[in-house]
């Protein structure tokens, strides 16, 4: 999700992500949602943790971008953990 500068800090991304969780877990009955991001993207990682994702692991030197190898962090939310927060 990419937000316009004026939307940053308004909880739009947080609320939208939580609404998606409702669809994924209640309507689609998924057991797990996962994602990955560059391990040095601390801003994204902090956001994902805030909405309920938990760190699951890291792939070292997994992505090659502009002549540099980058690590990937894997994060996930389990349905059972989501249900504890609602």
How does this model look, in words?
With 86 residues, the protein is an alpha+beta fold. The chain is 38% helix and 35% strand. The protein contains three helices and three strands. A three-stranded antiparallel β-sheet has the order 1-3-2. It starts with 11 loop residues before the first helix and ends with a helix.
Summarize the structure.
This protein has three helices and three strands; from the N terminus they run αβαββα. The protein has 86 residues and is an alpha+beta fold. The protein is globular, with a radius of gyration of 14 Å.
Features:
3 helices, 3 strands, single chain, alpha+beta, three-stranded antiparallel sheet
Give the SSE string.
HEHEEH
| Main sheet: strand order | 1-3-2
Rg calculated over all Cα atoms: 14 Å
- Tally the helices: what do you get? 3
Which structural category do the helix and sheet elements fall into?
Answer: alpha+beta
Indicate the proportion of strand residues: 25-35%
Mean pLDDT figure: 92
Which of globular, elongated, flat, extended, rod-shaped describes the shape? globular
N-end to C-end Cα span: 23 Å
Low-pLDDT residue intervals, each spanning 5 or more residues: none
Residues in helices, as a percent range: 25-40%
Number of strands: 3
* Major sheet attributes: 3 strands, antiparallel
């Amino acid at each position: 999700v990419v937000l316009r500068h004026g939307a940053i800090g308004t909880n739009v991304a947080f609320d939208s992500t939580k609404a998606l969780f409702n669809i994924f877990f209640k309507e689609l009955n998924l057991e797990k949602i996962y994602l990955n991001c560059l391990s040095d993207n601390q801003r994204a990682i902090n956001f994902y943790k805030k909405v309920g994702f938990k760190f699951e692991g890291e792939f070292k030197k997994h992505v090659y971008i502009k002549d540099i190898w980058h690590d990937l962090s894997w994060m996930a939310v389990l349905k059972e953990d989501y249900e504890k927060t609602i």
